[in-house]
């Protein structure tokens, strides 16, 4: 039996380790890791990378002062004391046989609220048929699991990457992406990177940028600021429609409405019989590739203030507008015919027996840092599922297995292997 195991291919090892991989996903799915609270999961992953996979493991917290000088930095109103990055590294013993590679995944997830709407425990990682349910199980703990077990399968087949290889588990992707930026700024770079964002098994070639902003109304007068806040909701809805009617990059020509202006929170008042004295709206706006987020901020600010000037009370009491969190550029990868894409296409087709596809993402991911600032080709390619950021989030386990096999094959082809 042991002799037969040693004769298994890397792809066959993924099958052999499949039950263990699902158990691992359940374990990390049961560890809450909302943005700002990633430390417990990161300790678990650091221990696994070091003691189970034998990787050289480092961890550190993003340095806000250092990052604030970088054009890709997003301003924050929080610290990173509970949010360390974890990096596992393997030093290649024959680097001339291949190129260096990063598998990178974020470990932070959004809140599961309202928990009462879930049909299962959002931290239970319930498996039912070929699906698993939990907050963050798709975005992106399944992808993190796939990249870890891709390397484990390569090891089990008796191989190691010939060139340098890293597994990066980064923080705060859901609010800024500063975790991924911090890893790159600390020198953890390579010739290419794969990020298992869960948008199906099509490589991404473009993505939107993003800005976050806050509108605050406050008064001691008997004026209902919640009603005034409704005016800005209408303004932002009209602004969203206008943006999507503008000329757009060709990569988003097939998207009906790629840019979303999302009013994520609207808080006002403290008692049903009281006239609200304060109203706060927190919003997100997408940014097309090639557009400066700073310019978009100025445009958003002007639209809000223009709307305020049409109201007699708001003329005298203009809103306070604050930008925080995401300050992210959009991105396109022009050189679609690179060796990087050829390698990914080849292994995808061999594993799945389906043609390789492409997609433009109407969202923001950490891939932007690699491509925009470090000249490192990086794409998102991950499993499928449903209800990202929603109720009863789930991952399709069959696609997670396929992604694990694709990652293992890509790792072997790109880095080369030594026995």
From TrEMBL:
Coiled coil (UniProt feature): none
EC code(s) of this entry: 3.4.-.-
Listed InterPro entries: ArgE/DapE (IPR010182), Peptidase_M20 (IPR002933), Peptidase_M20A (IPR050072)
Hydrolase recorded as keyword: yes
Cofactor(s) the protein requires to work: Zn(2+)
GO molecular function: hydrolase activity
Domain of life according to the entry: Bacteria
Keyword entries, A-Z: Cobalt, Hydrolase, Zinc
Pfam families, per the entry: Peptidase_M20 (PF01546)
NCBIfam families, sorted: DapE-ArgE, PRK06837.1
Family statement: Belongs to the peptidase M20A family.
Name of the protein described by the UniProt record: ArgE/DapE family deacylase
Organism the protein comes from: Salibacterium lacus
Origin organism lineage: Bacteria, Bacillati, Bacillota, Bacilli, Bacillales
């Amino acid at each position: 039996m042991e002799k037969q195991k040693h004769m298994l291919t890397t792809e066959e090892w993924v099958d052999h380790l499949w039950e263990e991989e699902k158990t691992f996903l359940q374990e990390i799915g049961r560890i809450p890791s909302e943005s700002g609270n990633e430390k417990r999961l990161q300790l678990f992953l650091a221990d696994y990378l070091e003691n189970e996979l034998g990787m050289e493991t480092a961890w550190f917290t993003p340095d806000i002062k250092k990052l604030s000088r970088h054009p890709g930095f997003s301003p924050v109103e929080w610290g990173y004391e509970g949010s360390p990055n974890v990096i596992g590294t393997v030093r290649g013993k024959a680097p001339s046989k291949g190129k260096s590679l990063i598998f990178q995944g974020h470990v932070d997830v959004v809140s599961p609220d309202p928990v009462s709407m879930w049909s299962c425990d959002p931290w239970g990682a319930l498996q039912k048929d070929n699906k698993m349910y939990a907050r963050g199980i798709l975005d992106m703990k399944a992808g993190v699991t796939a990249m870890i077990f891709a390397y484990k399968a390569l090891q089990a087949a008796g191989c190691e990457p010939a060139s340098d290889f890293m597994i990066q588990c980064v923080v705060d992707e859901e609010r800024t992406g500063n975790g991924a930026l911090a890893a790159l700024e600390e020198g953890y770079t390579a010739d290419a990177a794969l990020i298992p964002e869960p948008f199906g098994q099509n490589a991404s070639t473009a993505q939107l940028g993003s800005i976050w902003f806050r509108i605050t109304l406050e008064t001691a007068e008997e004026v209902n600021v919640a009603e005034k806040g409704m005016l800005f909701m209408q303004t932002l809805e009209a602004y969203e429609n206008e943006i999507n009617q503008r000329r757009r990059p060709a990569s988003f020509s097939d998207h009906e409405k790629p840019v979303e202006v999302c009013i994520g929170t609207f808080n006002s008042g403290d008692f049903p019989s009281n006239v609200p004295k304060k109203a706060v709206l927190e919003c997100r706006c997408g940014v097309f590739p090639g557009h400066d987020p700073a310019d978009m901020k100025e445009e958003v600010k002007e639209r809000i203030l223009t709307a305020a000037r049409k109201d007699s009370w708001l003329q005298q009491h203009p809103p306070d507008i604050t930008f925080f969190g995401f300050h992210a550029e959009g991105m396109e990868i022009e050189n679609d015919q690179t060796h990087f894409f050829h390698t990914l296409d080849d292994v995808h087709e061999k594993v799945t027996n389906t043609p390789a596809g492409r997609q433009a993402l109407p969202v923001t991911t950490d891939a932007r840092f690699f491509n925009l600032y470090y000249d490192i080709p990086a794409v998102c390619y991950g499993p499928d599922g449903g209800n990202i950021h929603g109720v009863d989030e789930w991952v399709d386990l069959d696609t997670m297995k396929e992604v694990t096999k694709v990652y293992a094959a890509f790792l072997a082809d790109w880095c080369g292997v030594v026995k």
